[in-house]
Amino acid sequence: MPRQKRSWQESELSSEVEESVDAVCKEVKREKDDSIASKAILSLMSKLGVTHKKLELDQQALPSFSSTTWDDACAAFHLDPEKSFRQLEEFQVPDLILPPTVHERILKLAAMMLDVYKDPEDQKTEASHVRLLEAWHVPICQLFQGRIIDKPEARLGGTSVSSGGGIEHELYALNGGVLLLVGELKSSVHSNFVDEAQALFELEAAFVYNRELGLDPQPPVHAFLTDLITFKFFKYDGRNFARQDSIVLHDHLEFDAFLSGMMPVAERIFSTIMDGFIDHLEAMADKFRGRGEHGDRSDVSSSDAKVWTRASARATVQAQRRPYARPSTAIWEAAHQKAVHAREFLTRKSVQVTKRQAEKQGREGLRLLGESVRTLQKLSSMEDWDEEQLQRTIKTLLDEHSWGA
Predict the structure, then answer these.
(1) pLDDT attached to residue 42
(2) How far apart are CA 276 and CA 137, in angstroms?
(3) How many CA atoms does the CB half-sphere of 141 hold within 13 Å?
(4) Backbone phi, then psi, for 165, in 5-degree steps?
(5) Beta-carbon neighbour count of residue 137 at 10 Å?
(6) Which residues of 307-336 are buried (b: 16+ CB within 10 A; e: fewer)?
(7) Closest CA to 72 of 19, 11, 31
(8) What is the C-alpha end-to-end distance of the chain, expressed in Å?
């Protein structure tokens, strides 16, 4: 017999109970100790007679990402089911420029991908949409030089409003926090807002996942949905969802028109990732600064060891000169300041920008971004490289390759 989904209306808490729960959470957070939170939850379960099995059954009754509806999302997040996702407040991120040479690299890869996977309108499955998007996705993420990684087909666990599920793409920051989710728009169900509902539940689950990082305030999580014609962008800060203006390409575009239309999409994706990256760096710097102010002078906690192992000696000396500062604080502060400086250079100053100006402005901005990311540990096993180093390595490999029979 199929499992019956429980009614959202039946499961909602009264405002009085919500306020009491919020008050308890505030008190527990003041302790700055994860074990206190666990003990508080266990104590509450014991006093209310709630078993682990009951919690598991209740969560199984919640909608998964793939089975959710717009009505589910509206009930869970207090939205008006009679209105579309456009009822969400709008937000903007700084409009950043990618230099023409980066666009050139992306367009060449995209042309090869289109040769293999055909035109966007021929992509009838989710997998094919995601596969073709790689032509833009990979070069943009690589600008962060291994400090942001992609985990395709990852899973997010359940929360108080959903039982979780799989995600097409998750972009993780260097210490494990989710920055950006990428999902699919299925054209057959556009009018039902099922994809938008799924995105909201995924954002909420990602935000809950990020709580393990102990950041306060916790930075927002971003998401975008696409079928390679329409691109919808969302954000969740733990209290409210917001949306950006969608980017819509024309159907049945010719080869060059499609590539041209994807250029502003590439810059929007880069701008979104950059915004999340900077928010994340700022939150990490605040976290370590707060520990230092409370007298924690230890070099680094075990959970943060991976970001400390490649710290520069200069950052260590600077941090030790500051009262109450941890060495890790200076590293996060330096990375954040350089990333902010990079964004200032990359921000579009005028609609009247020549190709030469865009290249100069973009190159300098990416150079500063490189300084920011190299302050931190790389997540992949590869060493840092630049174009010249890579070209030398490739030349050596080609020269040493046995070309004979």
Answers:
(1) 72
(2) 16
(3) 24
(4) 155, -170
(5) 20
(6) bbeebeeebbebbeeeeebbbbbbbbbbbb
(7) 11
(8) 64
Dump pLDDT digits (tens) for 287-315.
888 665 555 554 444 344 333 333 333 33
* 212 burial via Cβ count (<10 Å: 0-12, 13-18, 19+): exposed
43 CB neighbour count, 10 Å cutoff: 10
pTM of the model: 0.78
Give the separation between CA 378 and CA 333, rounded to whole angstroms: 17
Q: With 60 as the cut, is the pLDDT of residue 58 above it? A: no
Which residues fall within 8 angstroms of residue 351, CB to CB, at 6 or more apart? none
Q: What are the structure tokens assigned to 145, written together?
A: 């030089």
SS3 track for 208-256: HHHHHHCCCCCCCEEEEEECCCEEEEEEECCCCEEECCCEECCCCCCHH
b/e map 55-80, b = 16+ CB within 10 Å: eeeebeebbebeebbbebbbbbbebe
